[in-house]
Amino acid sequence: MPRMLDVSDAVRAEIGDEEADRLLAGDNAPGSYDCTSCRTPGDSAQERTSTVLFVGDETAVLAFAHATCLPSQVVQVTEEQLRGAVRSINADAGAPGGAPAQTVPQQTAPQHAAPEQAVLGVTSGLVLIAGELHPALVVEPTAPIVRPGTNGPGDEFLQLLVEQGYQPAPALDAVPPVLHGWSVLLAVGQLHAVLQPSTDGGRPVAWWQAHQPLQVTDGWRAAANKHQQVLLYAAPVGAIGRQPREDLLRDALDRAAAQGRLVAATLPLAGT
User: Where is this region: Disordered (predicted)?
Assistant: First the structure.
C-alpha cells in the first residue's frame, strides 16, 4: 500500500532512487511507527510522515517522524552515536506500534569530520521569556579560549562567537535572533551535538559534540518540539558555573548578561 511519506531530495540522494521509490510504494516502509522526535505512535498510511536518515561513518539508519514534528532530512552523526540510536530505536520497537530502525544503503559517504573542538561544558534548561518556556543550552568553557593559531593570553570566546553571528545578550527578556546554518541535534530524544556550517559548503559539522548522548527532560524535549528551535547562551569560563537548579541557572545567566558576559542565538532544531 502506498505510504504518505515525505522523502527529501537529500535523503533520496543518499539512499538512491530505487530505495526511495520502494519506500513510497510501501514496500519497505512501516505502517505504524514511533515518531523519532516526539516518541508517540504514527501511521504512514494515515498521516504525512517524514523519512529521517541518520548517517554515520560507515552506515546509515532510516527512521520515521510525524511530518508535523520534523521535515525529511539527512542528519550526520558519529558511528558510535548511530549505534546507540539504533539500540534505542529497536528497544522501543518492542512497544505497541513500534517499528525497528532500518539500515539502508548509502550512495555517498560523509565527507566531513568534526574539527578539533574546545572543551565546552553544556547545560540544558528551560528559560522563561515573556511568560513562555523555551528550551535552552548554556555553554561555558572549562578554560579561557584563545583565537586559533595564537597562544594567548586572554579569552576571546565571546568575540569568536560574535564573529560567527551570535549577538550580545544584555538581558534575557526576548528570544535572540535565529542564527541560520547552526542547529541543535537531538537523536532519539537525546542531545548529541551543536552543529555549525562547514567551511566548504557541505554538510554541517559539530561545533560541540557529546562524548555520550545527554539525556534531556521530557519538558525540555516537549518545548523543543513545540518551538522547533533551541536558545543557546554562551559565557566565558567562570561566568555561570555549575548550577544544580534551573532557578539558580537563570540567576547566573541574568548576572552574566548584566555584566556583558553573555552572547546568544536561537538555533533551529535538527534531527529529533
Answer: 90-114
The residue assigned the cell 516526539 is 38
Pairing relation of β-strands 190-196 and 102-103? unpaired
β strands within the chain, DSSP E: 5-6, 32-34, 41-43, 49-55, 60-66, 73-76, 102-103, 120-129, 132-141, 167-168, 183-187, 190-196, 205-215, 229-234, 263-271
Q: What is the residue extent of each domain of the chain? A: 5-103, 120-271
Span 125-139, pLDDT tens digits = 999 999 999 999 999
Cα–Cα distance measured from residue 120 to residue 215, given in angstroms and rounded to the nearest whole number: 17
First to last CA, the chain: 27
Strand pairing category for 132-141 and 229-234? parallel
Q: How far apart are CA 202 and CA 208, in angstroms?
A: 18
Cell of 203: 554538510
Please write the tens of the pLDDT for every residue from 137-177: 999 988 888 777 776 677 889 999 999 999 999 999 999 99
Residue 101 one-letter amino acid: A
